[in-house]
Specification:
Chain lengths: 193, 193
């Protein structure tokens, strides 16, 4: 941030009184507003249909052409489950009933919190939205593990199939930290529970 | 937002191509940046010590003088459980081990997602930080229910004591919607699970 969104003056980074972090602060004495920046939530669905799960192949960057669950940034004025259902409608044209929160992964290095919900189809209809090349119901043996777009999705699905085999679902909380060379997209996963 | 944080030009609200929501868009042809605004996460702890829970009396607005759990905005570059532990150190000088996610409440009308974790004290020490007037371990009968600062905290503690009586904790997902007159601080609580 270079300019104050409120008054247009130059912004500088400093630690406000009583704070312990660098913030973007407006340099205008008549404004002086402190602009906080915080992580964003990505919300989405594991849509269950009998033994299969709904996957979308991405028609947008990043990770064009790879597979993912329907998910995207939580918007203002919606709940996390409303956001998960909205993203599923937008990306997969699927009308879903959200059941429960399945996984929460923080990716602190990119200021993101993934929250993925189990959901079921209200109607049997689905198909690619604007951001998807194709949408398919896949059983576990059909999941293209080496063509999944995001590590948090891969780990969520690994936990999902393990829970399903074990006979019960719970809410998993974890984080993913990049390891190895920058940009190599390798992560270590640390679970809280 | 009135001015572009990137280039300082005037911002106007419009729906970008391929989007369906009003966004703040820079009017400068050489910039044109779209500025998204998203909900923020509030993360905190239910700190357990034997049968008691750690409560803080607020030394800051809003809700000065009322009681709450140690909690605050998730910061960039930290996980949700790290943020919960950090807020507990800042507000209650308590060093905690975070156990598991207990409740998630979306307050969509103010673009907030509360995430509260069960935690235990690593050491028996605690006391008021800069933002607290006092910090106390309270058992269920001592909780000042009519002096709690935030509805999401009240509902979280109600669920917590109910789970404890029932003999097991799980992760609760819900939302709070304001009802009645604006500003009257009355909510209806809707649980997903």
């Amino acid at each position: 941030m270079s300019f104050c969104p409120k008054c247009g003056s130059i912004v500088e980074q400093a630690i406000p009184e009583g704070d312990n972090r660098l913030r973007d602060i407006c340099t205008s004495p008549s404004c002086g507003k402190i602009h906080y920046q915080n992580p964003r939530v990505i919300t989405g669905c594991i849509v269950e249909s009998e033994e299969k799960i709904l996957f979308c192949r991405r028609a947008i960057q990043p990770r064009y052409g790879l597979w993912t669950l329907p998910a995207g940034f939580l918007e203002n004025s919606e709940t996390i489950s409303e956001g998960a259902a909205r993203e599923t409608m937008e990306e997969a044209n699927a009308d879903v009933e959200v059941i429960d929160l399945f996984s929460v992964f923080t990716l602190a290095h990119i200021n993101q919190v993934y929250m993925l919900f189990r959901a079921t189809l209200k109607t049997p209809h689905f198909g690619p939205g604007m951001e998807s090349l194709e949408v398919e119901l896949l059983d576990e043996s059909q999941v293209p593990w080496d063509q999944l777009a995001f590590a948090a999705i891969t780990e969520t699905m690994r936990l999902y199939f393990a829970d399903r085999k074990a006979g019960g679902f719970r809410t998993h909380i974890g984080e993913m930290r990049p390891i190895g060379e920058p940009g190599c997209r390798q992560y270590e996963t640390l679970m809280l529970n």
